[in-house]
User: What shape does this take?
Amino acid sequence: MGKSLYQKVWDAHTVGTLADGRTQLFIGTHLIHEVTSPQAFGMLRDLGLKVKFPSRTFATVDHIVPTENQDQPVDPLAAEMMQALRDNADDFGVTYFDLKSGKQGIVHVVGPEQGITQPGTTIACGDSHTATHGAFGAIAFGIGTTQVRDVLATQTLAMEPLKVRRIEVNGDLRPGVYAKDVTLHIIRLLGAKGGIGYAYEYAGDTFDRMTMEERMTVCNMAIEGGARCGYVNPDETTFAYLKGRPYCPQGAEWDEAVARWQSFASDADAHYDDVMVINAADIEPTVTWGISPDHGIAVSETIPDPADAATPVERQSITEALEYMKLPAGTPIKGVKIDVAFIGSCTNGRVSDFREVAKFIQGHKVAPGVKAIAVPGSQIVAVLCEKEGIDQIFRDAGFEWRAAGCSMCLAMNPDKLVGDQLCASSSNRNFKGRQGSPTGRTILMSPVMVAAAAIAGSVADAREIFGLEPAVA
Amino acid sequence: MALEPVKQVTGRAVHVPGADIDTDRIIPARFMKCVTFDGLGEFAFYDVRFDPSTDEKTDHPLNDPRFHGASILLAGVNFGCGSSREHAPQSLSKYGFKAIVAESFAEIFFGNSTGLAMPCVVAAKADLDELKAAVEADAKIQVTVDLEAMRVTSSAGHDLPVVMPDSAREALVSGRWDPIQELLDNDTVISAKAKELGYV
Assistant: This one.
């Protein structure tokens, strides 16, 4: 019986077994940001500890950065957090991609962009969307702040191994169906808690054909399905993306690295604790209607009715969600009026996301009364888009073109919903209050679907708005 | 590092209803604008404890005077899902919770809580529903989470089997819930592993 990538990476990084039975796991790459790291550095200082491998920790600032003007004075609390990261990076000798570096951005956009994210490695970050980096065939997962301290001080963590579920998607995605729809569809099928105890291996020819940025979109939301990490086996697409990136090996070392990376890919006869197979043609443009990422439906479907629920628990869950969302049961989701449209985040804030939307929005205008913002995931993404004129296409269509940051995905900066505004969002969480207003409402969807909603002023089928092939072949 | 073993936690309990209670709900992001964890206790469940428009207290169970001082939180499925923010268990711990009994926990939240010596144990839904109903009817019931026997018992006669991963249980009952010293002790093995991996 062969081994999965998860098993191989786990074995290669095992330092030993701790007294309580947990594995001491070596963390090859550590990413940090301003929200979850200051307390960890405080703990290091209290314990009189140093960072064991400063060259293996990389910092950037993303959550609290204002996106209208990154240099504008931020609120005093945000300023204190940014200063703390600056001081900690300097005091402990950690690389910091700050606002002046030209490389700042959402930590999960920056890592891959710089070639820091590599196959066959372990990657940890005090951020649940660290799962994103699994797109490269890394075992990447979110940790708490005390664990950030552990990684800083020892480059290791006390961990329990996960089981592995292989999720195979085969076939061509239909026009207007994107990686975001694939990940929302999987979460809909398996539920928000379906992945507890599992790592997800995303496989099948649909994934084989995906670009790295599409794979990142899917892996990013593994955690929304309860799986702490998700990954795609490394292949030629992975290596082509990484070649020449600043932190990747070069010359003869590159060839050695590729050979090492390839050796981590799952064996053909690998053991899996569970397998599920999905037909790509069954996936529709998917949107959420509720307050959990597993509250997903195809855009052509109607909002669930608690009366149709299979169990009392499900009935209660639908009722609570609809009460919060102020949406009528049993009616089409298409046509639900929106107030805000947000394109960005570590799920869908990469250059291909903006390129794809730009293909369609020329000649269209954001509906009156809708506030539409486009937030590049990094300064590099912003520059690429600006070189290609994509920023102007967005502006001409009525979007605000902003600077890099997490922005309205979690609204720790000034970008927030107001009151019970409803936002069509390319981000990853539709939790109550997630986008900055305790009564704000979120509908998750792909960037092209957000653009369609912005133009229609309501939840819309992008295939109809942009004249793509009909929904049913 | 000598740590206090956590073998048994006893106190009054409160039921916070709902499935998939995420860490944004437990501690909204705006309260994470801080460089320490101090003072997070008062913001636990803030946006559901206070009406967003009037700032008046809602009928959330944590606002019910009968449950003031409760130290055991009873919850539903997938408790603590979403963001990895340790601010969430920190706020619950600083609020006064010493243990959580739920139908299931999100993993990152579970690990963060164990590291704060706040055990999270899983009970069967039917058993837990009975305990929740009893506590809602009589808030004075004393509930004990016993990590040696792996039972949750109450002064009203409840006796539920509960589960948690062996390693977390062992870490708590033996006073090793903060692994930092043990991780540090293996320094030479860590350095050897770094060399062996070839990319560090």
Observations:
- Strands of chain B lie at 8-15, 72-74, 99-102, 120-123, 142-146, 151-154, 159-163.
- The mean pLDDT of chain B is 97.
